[in-house]
């Protein structure tokens, strides 16, 4: 699972890092405690132009499939299991040609023992943002007027896979973090995605995921840099 993450880079920094050609409007500010359904920055390539244009856009973190009649769902859609994403009705159209990167400075995960949940912050060792494999969708709100600029909603989800190595000590799932040499292929809307592409992306992510560092943090309250300060267990 990936239910909370942070992104501390500004939109111009992300645009430079991901070679973005177009920055969208109302991009979210840096945040240390992003929750599902909040707005997040995503990188995508628009297939409405030839060649495709790489864009940085603001998206709702919880994917709304195009066939939905309302934005809410009976089950969570902020994560998608990589093992089944290509066959699930909610995600399969996005796997085919609407793939995204979700920049993340790091993410939080909880280790559960009995009724006790201990939060950890997971991040790269170089401090650079992770590029999490995501999917996106455009949804037209049937209750909104055609003239309403908010009638089209961009939403996204983060792919997860089975955790391996040290991270498996915390939780059995982990986001799919793509290496840079996979960014172009994952984003290319001309590449028709299927389960084999997702499986290959997961395999490519293993080296990145196994290099991640983590440490215990205090319970998440508020939104600020203090949320990623390590807990000094000796003083507890």
Polypeptide structure, described:
- It is built from four helices and 13 strands.
- The protein has 236 residues and is α+β, with helices and mostly antiparallel strands.
- The model has no long low-confidence stretch (mean pLDDT 93).
- A hairpin with a 2-residue loop joins strand 8 and strand 9.
- Strands 2, 4, 5, 6, 7, 10, 11 and 12 form an eight-stranded mixed sheet that branches. It has a five-stranded antiparallel sheet with strand order 3-1-8-9-13, with no helix packed on it.
- 14% of the residues lie in helices and 34% in strands.
Keywords:
236 residues, 8-stranded mixed β-sheet, 4 helices
Which helices and strands appear, and what pairs or packs with what?
Layout: E1 4-7, H1 11-17, E2 22-23, E3 31-34, E4 39-46, E5 53-61, E6 79-81, H2 92-97, E7 99-104, E8 106-113, E9 116-123, E10 130-140, E11 152-162, E12 173-175, H3 183-187, H4 195-210, E13 213-216
Parallel strand pairs: 2-5, 5-11, 6-11
Antiparallel strand pairs: 1-3, 1-8, 4-5, 7-10, 8-9, 9-13, 10-11, 11-12
In terms of DSSP E residues, the strand content is 25-35%
Order of helices and strands: EHEEEEEHEEEEEEHHE
Structural class based on helices, strands and sheet pairing: alpha+beta
Number of strands: 13
Provide the residue-averaged pLDDT: 93
Concise account of the structure shown:
With 236 residues, this protein is α+β, with helices and mostly antiparallel strands. It contains 4 helices and 13 strands.
């Amino acid at each position: 699972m990936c239910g909370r993450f942070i992104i501390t880079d500004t939109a111009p920094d992300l645009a430079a890092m991901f070679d973005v050609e177009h920055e969208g409007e109302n991009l979210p500010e840096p945040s240390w405690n992003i929750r599902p359904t909040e707005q997040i920055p995503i990188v995508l390539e628009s297939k409405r132009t030839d060649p495709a244009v790489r864009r940085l856009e603001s998206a709702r973190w919880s994917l709304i499939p195009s066939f939905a009649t309302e934005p809410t769902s009976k089950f969570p859609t902020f994560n998608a299991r990589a093992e089944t994403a290509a066959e699930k009705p909610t995600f399969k159209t996005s796997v085919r040609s609407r793939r995204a990167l979700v920049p993340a400075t790091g993410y939080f995960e909880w280790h559960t023992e009995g009724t006790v949940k201990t939060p950890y912050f997971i991040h790269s060792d170089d401090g650079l943002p992770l590029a999490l494999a995501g999917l996106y969708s455009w949804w037209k709100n049937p209750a909104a007027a055609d003239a309403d600029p908010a009638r089209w909603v961009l939403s996204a989800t983060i792919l997860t896979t089975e955790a391996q190595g040290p991270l498996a000590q915390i939780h059995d799932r982990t986001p799919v973090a793509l290496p840079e040499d996979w960014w172009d292929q994952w984003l290319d809307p001309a590449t028709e995605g299927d389960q084999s592409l997702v499986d290959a992306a997961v395999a490519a992510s293993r080296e990145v995921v196994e290099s991640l560092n983590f440490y215990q943090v205090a319970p998440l309250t508020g939104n600020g840099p203090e949320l990623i300060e390590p807990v000094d267990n000796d003083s507890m």
